[in-house]
Amino acid sequence: MKIEYRYGALCGLGLCGWVLVEYALGFHTTSLEIGSYSGYGSMIIPAVMIFSALREHQKIRHGILLTKDAVNIGFTIAIVSAGIITLFMAFYNSVINPEWIDAMVEWQRRKLILAGATDDQIEQFMGQNRRMNNTLGQAVMSFIGTTGLGVFFTIINLVLLNLFKRQFRA
Questions:
Q1: Rounded-to-integer distance, Cα 54 and Cα 48, Å
Q2: Where are the alpha helices (DSSP H) in 92-134?
Q3: CA dihedral 102, 107, 112, 118 (to 10 degrees)
Q4: Among 66, 74, 96, 141, which residue carries the largest CB count within 10 Å?
């Protein structure tokens, strides 16, 4: 199996595991305030997977990592992992924990009320959330977000590997 597909699958499965751990710890049910931040920690998974894949590819190529290869590998990892987490989140949102989106929106609504938001502001917020926070909206945002993060981390890793005197050729 090619490096990028293996690491893409590992990344996607790692992200699925992260969501399940959050769920098991109650971050999507009883501790929504923690859950509103804990998802950011999952960004370490694609960062590490892309870095590891690039380093492995570089070792196979005897220290040479072409920029075009790095971009290809990182983007493929991002697409593969995005496909996996998107399918998983559709399953999660409809089967495992179908109430969590409504619970999160309600928690955010209560925060707005406590902050003194007007009824119009609250209604506007709720309307936006109804349009975006459904299975399709979550799937699209999950795919775009995971792919975007993958591209971002590929660029960061290219810079880091370059700073550490790794060889690059355009």
A1: 10
A2: 100-114, 119-132
A3: 40
A4: 74
**Total of domains in the chain:** 1
- Look at residue 170 and tell me if it is in a domain: no
**Cβ within 8 Å of residue 32, ≥6 positions away:** 103, 104, 107
Q: What is the DSSP string of 32-60?
A: HHHHHHHGGGGGHHHHHHHHHHHHHHHHH
Let me know how long the chain is: 170
Q: Which positions ≥6 away from 97 have C-beta within 8 Å?
A: 23, 28, 29
Place of tokens 């459904």: 134
Stated pTM of the model: 0.81
CA distances for 38 relative to 43, 82, 140, 155, 157, angstroms:
10, 19, 21, 24, 23
